[in-house]
TrEMBL record:
E.C. code: 5.4.2.6
GO MF, one example: hydrolase activity
Key words of the record: Carbohydrate metabolism, Hydrolase, Isomerase, Magnesium, Metal-binding, Phosphoprotein
Positions of region (Disordered): 72-96
NCBIfam families assigned to the protein according to its UniProt record, in alphabetical order: HAD-SF-IA-v3, PGMB-YQAB-SF
Family of this protein: Belongs to the HAD-like hydrolase superfamily. CbbY/CbbZ/Gph/YieH family.
Natural source organism: Kribbella lupini
Keyword set includes Zinc: no
A Pfam family it matches: Hydrolase
Catalytic activity: beta-D-glucose 1-phosphate = beta-D-glucose 6-phosphate
Cofactor (UniProt): Mg(2+)
Protein name from the UniProt record: Beta-phosphoglucomutase
Amino acid sequence: MLGLPPQVTVCLFDLDGVLTDTAAVHMAAWKEMFDAFLRDRGGAPFTAEDYEQYVDGKPRTDGVRDFLASRGITLPEGSPDDPPTASTINGLGNRKNDAVQHRIRTDGVRVFEGSRRYLQAAQQAGLRRAVVSSSANTQEVLEVTGLAQYIELRVDGVTIRTDKLRGKPAPDTFLAAAHQLGVEASQAVVFEDALAGVEAGRAGGFGYVVGVDRVGQAEALRQHGASVVVQDLAELLDGDHR
Ligand SMILES: O=P(O)(O)OC[C@H]1O[C@@H](O)[C@H](O)[C@@H](O)[C@@H]1O
C-alpha cells in the first residue's frame, strides 16, 4: 500500500526537497551568498551542479567548506557566533542563513502535496515517522507548514551540533533516529532527494532508500545509493514506481 518492503516499520524523511519545496530556497540563498563572495575574488559563479555535488543535504558549515575546497579556497573556521560579514567558514554560513531565513519568512514554504498525503497514509498505517535533516531551521519549517503534527521525532542541524553527530553523507543522523524509534536500520526506509542523503542511506544499511528526484538527477541518485527513484512520494501510494 505504501510501496515499501514488508519489514519496514519506520519512515525517515529528509525535509528540504522531500517534504517541502525548500531545496530550491536553500540553493538560491547559497547562490546569493557565494556569488557575492566569489565576485570579490574574481571567481566563476556558483552553479546548480556545485550545489548538488558539494552542498545539498550536508550540514551548513560542511557545505561551505566542501564547496570552497572544490575551488581551492581555504578559510579559517571561525566560530558559530561570527558575524555574517566575517570571512570565515562560520561567517559565510551565517550570511547564507540570514538569506535563507529572509526567504522563508517573506515567501513562505510550499509543502509537496504528495508528501503530505504520504505522511497521512504512513500515520494511518501505523508506521513511525521521523524527520532527519541537516538543517538547523527544521523546527521552524515544520511549524510554519503544519507538518509538525505528522512527525514523532526530529533529528536535525541543531541535534547534529549538540550531540556532535557526523552529518550526511555519514549515516549517523539516520541511525540515531532509527535507534530512538527502537528499530534496526534494516527495518527503516530513508526518503532523500540529495546525493549526500541517499549515500547516507546506503552507508547505514537501511532496508530501503527512496530517491526523490525533483531536478532530473535520477541516475545519479541510483548510483549514490537509491533503491528506487520517484519524482513524487504519491507515486509510491499509486504503486506506479519504477
Ligand atoms: O543552513 P541550514 O538551514 O541549517 O541547512 C543546512 C542544509 O540543510 C539541508 O537540508 C539542505 O539540503 C541544504 O541545502 C542546507 O544547506
